[in-house]
């Protein structure tokens, strides 16, 4: 039997980040993950950048504080421009890092590379124990502790248990935390492509009648990662195409903005569902990241939202310790829940409004959204507000991501 301060269920980026934040506080931490540990070797090139995330400035600052940013940046694509437009109207808007005196608008990073670097850093701490390739056979909690039994017979007692185990969270289901969800009726197709024209470090997103298509720049100037979110029936049709036909459909959908394109990886699909746990905590158990919420990928904010969850929770745990209080005190956990629920709700509402606004087909609505985007593109103050939220420079941010911001351009007062 092992006694510890915090048990984290889930070894994705959110769980590993939280483990590292708590390890730095000298807490005893156990991390449990049903899948394998991140590979120490470089990933298979055919799989590299198959699943990517767009990290904003707040997430960059968090990883800077955790000491992994230089290595992560070396394998990332820092995009300096962003172009968003509608395929069959005049609606468009553009953003530039140069305009805002920033080094970049965001960073496209390989998801597995993030996990590798976090795990490598975590292994430097003797107060952290990681269990990979194990399942949970029992989870029970009492007034003062949570008991976790693994299928390898290991028994773990902890003051706090954190569910960071993704959209199909075992912890959330076992604790019977209610979940609100709706099907976006979209399926995301992800793949890596080679372009004829260089991407010029520009992230592009085009809104089609069936859903948005994102072209995300990778470190090589002619490689992009695509996230093509289409109505499920249309996604099925696209997946049934052979590679040549799919390449042609992709080129047409992107209006050949990068010239003819060719797949350089397998296509993968993911159903898109909004999930939102109406309760994030019960007793000494609390949820973070995708276990608590998942959103449409059209703005690329899912990873950033989850990382801010764990940074906020780590901050409140630190404050509890400094005050000599219980790190799983109900008052503190409710404070965390209120804080991060407000941020998640705002993002869910914004993504739903954005999605519905761009999928509405009446001519008058198309005209209004076209005029709205063009107006936003021409109004500096409004544009700065939009960019500040996208970059993670607005909102109720955890302290750790504020320290290195040092924004000196127009966004400083946005």
From TrEMBL:
Which cofactors are named for this entry?
FAD
Residue intervals of the FAD-binding domain: 4-348
Stated name of the protein: FAD-dependent monooxygenase
* UniProt key word DNA-binding: no
The reply on keyword Flavoprotein is yes
Q: Could you tell me which NCBIfam families the record lists for this protein? A: Ubi-OHases (TIGR01988)
Q: What is the lineage of its organism?
A: Bacteria, Pseudomonadati, Pseudomonadota, Gammaproteobacteria, Chromatiales
* Highest taxon of source: Bacteria
Q: Which UniProt keywords apply?
A: FAD, Flavoprotein, Monooxygenase, Oxidoreductase
Gene Ontology MF: a single term: monooxygenase activity
Using the record, list the residue span of the signal peptide; answer none if the entry has no such feature. none
One Pfam family cited in the UniProt record for this chain? FAD_binding_3
Its pathway, per UniProt, is: Cofactor biosynthesis; ubiquinone biosynthesis
Record-linked InterPro entries: FAD-bd, Ubi_Hdrlase_CS, UbiH/COQ6, UbiH/COQ6_monooxygenase
